[in-house]
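To: structure subgroup
Subject: Chain for Friday's discussion

All,

I'm putting the inputs and outputs inline so they're searchable in the archive.
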Amino acid sequence: MAAVLALEAPLAKRPRGRPRKTLDERDEGNRRQQLIKVAARLFRRKGFDATSTRDIAAATGMHSGSPFYHFKSKGALLCAVMEEGMRAATLRQTSVLQPLDDPAQALRRLIRSHFDTLLGPGRDFIPVMLYESRSLTARQRAGINKLQREYEAAWMPVLHALAAAGLLRADVNLARLLIFGALNWSVQWFDSKKSASLDDLTDAAMALFVHGEST
């Protein structure tokens, strides 16, 4: 009997490069950003301790355990909220500075950008950082402090230039601390429905901190 030789089917070629992401994997970045945004809003309104991961999951339409797919803990999510806020604030202020600005105009732009970061629509990230940092680990706090220093570094040449021109009659480092302290406190009392506009706040801050500045 003649042997019948079966032909082997050719092996399927493996696709080159990385395998295609599934729908869930492609949506992972969007879901992560959604969690950060929702968590920022809830942490600001209710406080970190009073907000559960179940609250966050419900507000994003997820199952109660789903946030842990994206973040190891509620504390890691809190840190991500602050990191997101600082990075967005730094990009925002970088975009408003102009190379040819005189020092007073540069400070005006920085203050206006900072007010927008603190008080603009949906700006929950920085207020959370201001009042919930105690809930971070030491390592997380060090990372946030680094981002904060990078953000504030853009203000120092402007303040030094104002001081050199006689428009800032205070020690530059003390002036920085006092300016940020005053601006940041506005999150406690500002009400867009009752208070002045952000431009009005900027005018008032300039008149307060810069000698001879008029609106």
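Points worth raising on Friday:
The chain is about 65% helix and 0% strand.
The longest helix spans residues 23-46.

D.
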